[in-house]
């Protein structure tokens, strides 16, 4: 019995040993399997991390190359679609201006380093590289691929915008190149095809620029290599004809390998601590993924950020807008888009240069950022346009409040270093209820509402409504018909008499444009003149009226002529020369003509206005300040610009019947002008009592329905042949005045 008990105990010990051995073998096998699985998984994680980093780097580099090319295209468009450039290349060719504004700008410029002007046959005229003229080897900068772009633009195959871009190889190296037709920005090119000129910009991928791309887009070791070099870490740069010009290769960062090297010693040293190892692996892997995600997010943010202002760009706005609309469809909220365009930015840019313009954009961006706050997203969508997206509760009310705050912000001048500039803005507001309107349509509506603000006088915000589509279509059709009417000389001129206040003799006439639109009848000047200003037709319309009235003035010896001038005509650099040419053509003495201008342009651009006035005075014409009393009516403008005549606005004349205060205001206004030796014309005179008051106040000339409505040249001829009609009226008014001397006016 005892022996049996020992055997059973041994058997139990063997069984326990075998069980322990088996468990040890199982644990060993599990350790080997787990170690193998973990190492295999770690290797795959490292490889995948390297792959993700490589793909991110490739996509980033492709975006960087496209951005490099698009930046050149944007710069080229700014320089080619430039009214001053078209004038100095076509209207009044000025080689010094072309060299200064195109060639000299290649010196140490980050935007372009080669500028060439080609004629219609592709022959180079001006050619500059790095700020110096290209003496004998301009063709070295005009390879086959660049001429291919030139042929696209010249033949019109480049699309609605006469511009083509691509990468080319020149004697200087590989670079982005662009060809664009030099043209007016405000209207189509109106020059013969053989006289057209084309602007070529090249921005070479120099070692410095490649290094900057490497740093900006986190691509270490980025180099420009020959196209024959084979590398999986490279992006090929191709020409417009499909030829491989070069490759941009970078050194892979292999974040996965680095991570694996860090954790492998821990894995080998802690095989018995599989659980701890798995935990460490999870932590490290998660850290790697987070780092990769952070790098990717940084690249995406960089691609959707405006370089100048630091705000989201157009792509960033569209992404955010689509996200907001998607959320609105889910929870039934509203999305509001506020579009903003600066008023007067171009004048600041033209007057002080692009550097000041860039400073203005940065200052405006900073100010808008404070006003918008964190409840909405601000973006710069290009040029001097900004977009603001509001989402969530009461988004419309918040957008309106921000719009009002923005208008107040632009009500004060901005200080840019040593300069103080004054700009305004026009805003358009569009709303998508519950996300029903997609991003593209919402953007179009906001843009249309913004232009409605501009058409309505600027310095305001306007909400979109469907009628705007019909109104814009109507205005566009009127603009088309008006252009044809000007070309076909269908714009006529009528003349309103201006009389001497003492004798009531006809001394002058005011020329007024009239248009009888085919199929529609007469169109009010209050309608077609603003359309002419916004569509760029005001220059041609104004010159047509001036030409006709000067020609008519030859038949009226002894009479003077007054013609209204729009601020849009003032902005034309060739306006003065056009006026001088018309005087030479008609043989009219400039002293017989008065150009009437409102104070709007003098407020916005005092320096340029003063320059234009000096040029006009050298011709011999007189300048009148029109509608005095309807706007700011600043005494400073009368003294600063030295007007030859002042015209009192009809609102002051019509208020004379309101009592003594209106009469005293009139007398003070006339006394002010006469103290500065500025004669005064009163317009809008409709009653004899008004004529008496105006004559007593000191107005030397009167104009209004009392003396004649705007009429044809034949009616003016008849009035000149019957001067007794006006003299009888003068006698009647004088008699009425004598009868009224014993009672207060």
Number of strands: 25
CATH homologous superfamily identity of the domain at 490-739: EAL domain
Rg over alpha carbons:
38 Å
The main sheet comes to: 8 strands, mixed, barrel
Computed structural class: alpha/beta
Would you tell me which CATH topology of the domain at 490-739 applies? TIM Barrel
Unreliable sequence segments: 738-745
Instruction: Name the strands of the widest sheet in spatial order.
Output: 17-18-20-21-22-23-24-25
Helix proportion of residues, in percent? 40-55%
Estimate the global geometry from the Cα principal axes: elongated
Number of helices: 25
Distance from first to last alpha carbon = 152 Å
CATH architecture of the domain at 490-739: Alpha-Beta Barrel
Please state roughly what percent of the residues sit in beta strands, choosing from under 5%, 5-15%, 15-25%, 25-35%, 35-45% or over 45%. 15-25%
- CATH class annotation of the domain at 490-739: Alpha Beta
Mean pLDDT: 84
Task: Provide keyphrases for this structure.
alpha/beta; disordered C terminus; 8-stranded mixed β-barrel; 6-stranded antiparallel β-sheet; Alpha-Beta Plaits; 745 residues; 52% helix; TIM Barrel
């Amino acid at each position: 019995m005892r022996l049996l008990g020992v055997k059973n105990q041994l058997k139990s010990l063997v069984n326990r040993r075998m069980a322990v051995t088996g468990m040890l073998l199982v644990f060993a096998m599990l350790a080997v399997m787990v170690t193998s699985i973990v190492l295999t998984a770690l290797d795959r994680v490292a490889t995948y991390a390297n792959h993700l980093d490589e793909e991110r780097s490739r996509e980033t580099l492709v975006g960087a190359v496209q951005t490099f090319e698009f930046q050149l295209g944007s710069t080229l468009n700014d320089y080619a679609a430039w009214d001053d450039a078209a004038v100095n290349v076509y209207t009044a060719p000025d080689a010094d201006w072309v060299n200064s504004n195109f060639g000299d700008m290649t010196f140490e410029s980050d935007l372009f380093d080669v500028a060439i002007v080609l004629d219609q046959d592709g022959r180079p005229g001006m050619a500059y590289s790095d700020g110096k003229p290209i003496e004998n080897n301009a063709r070295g900068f005009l390879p086959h691929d660049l001429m291919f772009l030139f042929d696209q633009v010249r033949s019109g195959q480049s699309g609605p915008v006469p511009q083509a871009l691509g990468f080319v190889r020149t004697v200087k190296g590989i670079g982005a190149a662009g060809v664009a037709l030099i043209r007016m920005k405000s209207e189509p090119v109106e020059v013969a095809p053989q006289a057209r000129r084309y602007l070529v910009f090249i921005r070479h991928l120099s070692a410095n620029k490649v290094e900057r791309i490497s740093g900006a887009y986190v691509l270490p070791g980025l180099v420009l290599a020959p196209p024959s070099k084979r590398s999986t870490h490279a992006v090929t740069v191709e020409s417009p004809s499909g030829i491989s010009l070069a490759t941009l290769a970078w050194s892979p960062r292999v974040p996965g390998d680095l991570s694996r090297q860090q954790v492998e010693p821990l894995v080998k040293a802690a095989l018995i601590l599989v659980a701890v190892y798995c935990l460490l692996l999870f932590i490290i892997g998660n850290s790697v993924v987070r780092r990769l995600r952070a790098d990717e997010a940084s690249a995406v943010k960089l691609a959707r950020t405006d370089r100048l202002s630091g705000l989201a760009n157009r792509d960033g706005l569209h992404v955010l807008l689509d996200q907001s609309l998607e959320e609105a469809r889910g929870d039934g909220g509203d999305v509001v888009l506020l579009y903003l365009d600066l008023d007067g930015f171009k004048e600041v840019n033209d007057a002080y240069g692009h550097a000041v313009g860039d400073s203005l954009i940065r200052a405006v961006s900073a100010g808008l950022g404070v006003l918008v706050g964190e409840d909405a997203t601000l973006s710069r969508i290009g040029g001097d346009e900004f977009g603001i997206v509001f989402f969530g509760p009461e988004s419309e009310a918040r957008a309106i409040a921000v719009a009002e705050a923005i208008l107040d912000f632009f009500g004060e001048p901005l200080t840019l270093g040593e300069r103080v500039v004054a700009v305004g803005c026009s805003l358009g507001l569009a709303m998508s209820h519950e996300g029903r309107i997609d991003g593209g349509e919402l953007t179009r509506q906001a843009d249309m509402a913004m232009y409605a603000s501009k058409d309505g006088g600027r310095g305001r915000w306007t909400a979109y409504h469907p009628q705007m589509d019909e109104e814009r279509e109507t205005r566009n059709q009127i603009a088309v018909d008006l252009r044809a009417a000007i070309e076909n000389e269908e714009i006529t001129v009528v003349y309103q008499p201006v009389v001497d206040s003492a004798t009531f003799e006809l001394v002058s006439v005011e020329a007024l444009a009239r248009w009888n639109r085919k199929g529609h009848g007469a169109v009010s000047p209050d309608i077609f003149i603003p359309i002419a200003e916004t569509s760029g037709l005001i220059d041609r319309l104004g010159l047509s009226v001036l030409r006709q009235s000067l020609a008519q003035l030859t038949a009226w010896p002894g009479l003077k002529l007054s013609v209204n001038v729009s601020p849009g005509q003032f902005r034309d650099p060739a306006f003065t020369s056009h006026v001088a040419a018309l005087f030479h053509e008609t043989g009219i003495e400039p002293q017989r003509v008065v150009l009437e201008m409102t104070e709007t342009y003098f407020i916005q651009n005092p320096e340029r206005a003063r320059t234009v006035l000096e040029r006009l005075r050298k011709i011999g014409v007189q300048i009148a300040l029109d509608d005095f009393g309807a706007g700011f009516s600043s005494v400073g403008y009368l003294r600063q610009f030295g007007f030859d005549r002042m015209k009192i606005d009809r609102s002051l004349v019509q208020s004379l019947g309101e009592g003594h205060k209106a009469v005293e205001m009139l007398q003070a206004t006339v006394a002010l002008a006469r103290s500065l030796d500025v004669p005064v014309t009163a317009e809008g005179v409709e009653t004899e009592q008004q004529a008496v008051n105006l004559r007593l106040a000191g107005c030397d000339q009167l104009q209004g329905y009392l003396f004649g409505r705007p009429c044809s040249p034949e009616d003016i001829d008849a009035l000149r042949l019957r001067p007794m009609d006006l003299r009888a009226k003068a006698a009647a008014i004088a008699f009425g005045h004598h009868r009224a001397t014993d009672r207060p006016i």
